[in-house]
Every structure is written in C-alpha cells, then in structure tokens.
Amino acid sequence: MGGEAGIGKSRLVHEATRHADVPTLTGRAVYTAGPVPLRPLVEIAATAVRRFGLPDPAPLGPYAAALGGIVPEWSTELTHDVTGPVLAEGVLRLLATSTAS
User: Fold this and answer.
1) 52 touches 23 (CB < 8 A)
2) Which alpha helices (H) appear in the chain, and where do they start and end?
3) pLDDT band, very low/low/confident/very high, at 9 (cuts 50, 70, 90)
4) CA–CA separation, 67 and 82 (whole Å)
5) Span 16-35, mean pLDDT?
6) Structural domains in the chain (count)
C-alpha cells in the first residue's frame, strides 16, 4: 500500500489486522537515508522471532545463515553476502516455521 504521509495507511492496516481472525504481523517501509531492501519483510521476521521465540534453524536449511542479520544467533561469514531473493525466501521460511507452532 502506498500514498502520501498522513492519509491513514497505518491506521487502515491497524484496523484491518485488529479485526482479522488470524495472527498478523506488519512491517513498515520507511525511506530514511535511502531505500532499505525488503525492510517490511525484515521487520516482520524480527517481530515473529520476538513474538513466537527463536525457532529451530534446522528446517530453514541454508536460509538460517542468510537470516543472520535478523537473528544474530544464526550469523555467519555468509550473512553479509545475502541477495534479496535469498533473504526473502529465508524470511518466508522463518515465518512459516515461527507461526506453525
């Protein structure tokens, strides 16, 4: 969802998730010094870890290391060379693992 600041985007999302009959997580796409790739997904993943706890990294396979920037316990030397698609897949797998329990 996009639009000018102050038109009620966050309020709309808040109200929709408040009335949803399923668990929801949200992330913001704030433009600071420049665009942050996949920032909403990264925020959602970090929220999932805080809310549901740290899942077992085994089901994530090699994607656990890709999430080292979000989950410091999984950080490796490979964490810094993560591409957008690899990070996105890691976040999706993390969310599936986190919310399945």
Assistant:
1) no
2) 9-19, 39-52, 63-66, 84-100
3) confident
4) 9
5) 73
6) 1
Distance, in Å, from the CA atom of 46 to the CA atom of 68, rounded to the nearest integer, reads 11
In this structure, are residues 65 and 74 in contact, taking their beta carbons and an 8 Å threshold? Answer: yes
Residue 88 lies in a domain: yes
Residue-range definition of the domain harbouring residue 18? 9-100
77 assigned to some structural domain: yes
**pTM of the full structure:** 0.62
For the stretch 82-93, what's the b/e string if a residue is b when 16 or more beta carbons lie within 10 angstroms of its beta carbon?
beeebbbebbeb
Residue 85: what pLDDT? 85
Tally the residues of the chain: 101
pLDDT band at 30 (very low <50, low <70, confident <90, very high): low
In whole numbers, what is the pLDDT of the chain averaged over residues? Answer: 78
Distance from C-alpha of 50 to C-alpha of 52, rounded to nearest angstrom: 6
Answer yes or no: is 67 within a domain: yes
Cβ neighbours of residue 18 closer than 8 Å, sequence gap 6 or more: none
61 within a domain of the structure (yes/no): yes
